[in-house]
Every structure is written in C-alpha cells, then in structure tokens.
Request: fold
Amino acid sequence: MKTQDSHSRKFLKPEVLKLIGHPVRMQILMALARGEECVCHLTFMLGMRQAYVSQQLAILRRAGLVVDRKEGLNVYYQIADPHIRELLHLLEKAVEVPNKVHHHGRIAGCPCPKCQIALVEA
Amino acid sequence: MKTQDSHSRKFLKPEVLKLIGHPVRMQILMALARGEECVCHLTFMLGMRQAYVSQQLAILRRAGLVVDRKEGLNVYYQIADPHIRELLHLLEKAVEVPNKVHHHGRIAGCPCPKCQIALVEA
DNA sequence: ATGCTATATTCCATATATGGAATGAAAACC
DNA sequence: GGTTTTCATTCCATATATGGAATATAGCAT
Reply:
C-alpha cells in the first residue's frame, strides 16, 4: 500500500547508474529521453565525431538502456524502457547538461531525413 | 510554468552520478537516506571493514553528497542536501540494493550508542 | 601520560574506463 | 560491378577507479 507504484519494480542495477554518470552518455540519454533520434542527428547535435557517438551508444545498448532500429541507411535509437525514460525525466530536473541536448529541431548540416525534410519544407 | 518546481534546480553534475553508481556507496547512501547513522553502525550494517567504509564516506563527503558531525567518540553522517535525499528516495524504488541497508534497528555486535541503549532497554 | 576506541588517511598493485584513430560492414544509388 | 553514406567495431595508450593493508589521528577513560 505504498504511494506511487507506477515504477516501483527494481529494474536498475547500481552499476548502470555509473554508465549514466558520464558526461557524453548523459547528454545522449537526455536527448533520447524526448524521443527517438538517429545517430547522425545525435552526432551533429553534440558536435562530436560519429565514431565516438556510436561507441557510447554501443555501451548504452549493451547495458540495455537503449534499443536501436534500422531504417534504410539510418539507425534510430530510443530509450529501451519506459521506466528508464521516467527516471531520465526526473534526472533532467536535477542534472546539469549543455543546452544543446534540449534543441530538438532541425540541426544545420545534419543529413538525416528529419532535418532534410524540414529543410525542404521551409 | 512547469509542473513540479520543488527540486528543479540543477544541483547535480553528471560525474556525481558516477559516484552514486557504485555498489557500496549506493548502499551507504540508501542507508543514510532514512536518516543519520554513525560510521560503526554502517560498518556493521554492511558487514565491511571500517577502513573501507570510511574510505567510501570520504569520497561521498568530498563530492558534497554527505556531511559529518562529530559527537564524542562517534562520527555521524547524513545526506547533505534535501534535494539529494529526494533523488535517493526516487532511486530507491528503481535500484537493486541488498535488504540489509533497509534494516534500521539495532545491529548485533554494533558498539554505537543507539544500538547499546536499545540493548539496555530491552 | 598511557591505553583504548572510533574513525581517517595514505600507499599501492591491479582493474577498468576513456577517448582517439583507423578500419569494417551494410545499405542505397550510380 | 563500383561508389557513397551511415553506422559499428577493434585496437591501443593513457587516465582513473578499485579495494586491500598498514598506519595515523583524535577523543575519552583511568
């Protein structure tokens, strides 16, 4: 009879928090907390090399925090579990992350479908 | 005009999460989330050597997550900030920790005042 | 002052994380 | 076929974390 049973299942091992507590991975997770994004979009959003972003995404994927979905040439990532998304939304209020991860519009130079379609329509 | 402003200040750096995401430190924090405890009590609760518990407490103290208070021979630790305590209570629902950290009664063999007084009264 | 008790610190070998660079694989298009 | 584009992986030198062991400090008692 506790309050707030919505996410009371123990779904996180302490070690997973250590993975989250990494500046770049945190930024990636915060960006994904708002919704699915493709690798190239994340790359341009964070201003980092693609290889490095993929590397961090692989770590998050192996830890079960994110899942990927291939669509043609692009690979889209999203948070694996609604519980984790909830946790990220809570952390979003407490943790300092660069503003850029909250910029969820078109990104100049990004070649991903979303950005290109938005460009054509504008 | 956002909902829930109670703890919306950005008080946590991502690196601090990494500190929290350590099995032993997580257990210590979860134990302290319920209230102040002395070092010896934590030592007996977790069944670890005192030197090691002090070592981890020092890391948490330097990170600003806990504060200490000396009283005679004992040193009592507590969570430094109500915001952090709130976060820990949220994490408590999600993170797997051994049951022992939730045992907040007297601990057999613990020499701390709390446990000794309880022993005499019983 | 001596000794006891609770806690802190320092040292250190080993393990793991970090992030750069080059390379690999796979799909779409010519 | 070949080429381009997007993403993944592997290798590696360096940095940081981990946790054991010994030692240090500080308060209280006699």
